[in-house]
């Protein structure tokens, strides 16, 4: 079986550990990779270990003074500012080195695509989309997504589309490219009136000279698979078709799940699988098959993230796992020892049909008001008719 994708992984990436009972626990990565291995998804695949990104590459997005603060934080012993040392972003040992390794993983994935060695590449340890130019935010120290996009722009690509399906707004990536018409940022997220970071309204469409380069799709709490997919398909393919990207970069956070403790959307693992397959199809249709895949949020560490990201790896590799596939006995045994009080699912499905009704211009569902608001804000900027469901 061939391997049409590069998979970036090394256990050293588990060192991005914010400690204690912090929700951003690297066990989710370990369990996802273990599950993919147990399912045979990674059979015959050479996993690519990353190298730490050079400071000059991190400085594509971050101020040098911020790098200095991150480097000195573990030994500073005083208030270092820059969003570091907070409850969300506690200081941890080797913070700069491990954060640089995450960035290096996304750069390695981008480089394999740019060199034409593969059409797809994935770094599930990446997706740290909240980090800003001079400060950490939302569990994110360095913004590997934005660094990789910046690198792609300097290495053969003139039009990069970024799609963020995390439950939180992809604010750091949007901020990095808000004035750059070469980058289209699309974020589907829980409505900013109901969830941190409080940004990502439809009216945020890009700065002067880059109008239409930012697309924000805020969804009401309790949005389920069918409604999420209805919104996605009513907006994203049309905008991509007009933008004509040369490569698609996606942040594939899975904190949209109904069991996630930090947010209020109601997707299932089956919905996540439908999203990943839709992203794969869009990369094939609009970006010449070039698809850079990054991880992101997801805080139901045992029941959700491993299954959803095992599906993600399988989707990237064209080794799709049937939803009814039982969880492998060795993975169940390992995970049961690790989390003995957590009732484990039995298969790769939540038993949900993610089928949806496509938007037809009417307002029959709660999500339709969000669809209408986004189309009205963005579609005219791309020469599209917001009232025509064919656009």
Automatic annotation (TrEMBL):
Flavoprotein keyword on record: no
A Gene Ontology molecular function term of the record: histone deacetylase activity
Domain Histone deacetylase: 22-315
CDD domains: HDAC_AcuC_like
GO BP, one annotated term: acetoin catabolic process
Keyword terms, alphabetized: Acetoin catabolism
Biological or metabolic pathway of the protein: Ketone degradation; acetoin degradation
Family affiliation: Belongs to the histone deacetylase family.
Protein name in the entry: Acetoin utilization protein AcuC
Organism field: Gandjariella thermophila
